[in-house]
Specification:
The protein has 65 residues and is mainly alpha-helical. 58% of the residues lie in helices and 6% in strands. Helix 2 (16-23) crosses helix 3 (27-34). The chain starts with a strand and ends with a strand.
Length: 65
Amino acid sequence: MRNRLRELRAARRWSQADLAEKCGVSRQAINAIETGKYDPSLPLAFTLADVFALTIEEIFQPDRS
């Protein structure tokens, strides 16, 4: 799954730790999602969407190779 987290976070000048705090997860979790090593749970995906005021689909896109 591809995502725009790094781009969205950078546009707001937030560190991974800043975003993690807003979402109630660890910085390592944000890093793992950004690098594609971990797909977030549905509740976390909704939280991320709320933090950025976007839909889940605007942040995450499935890999359709």
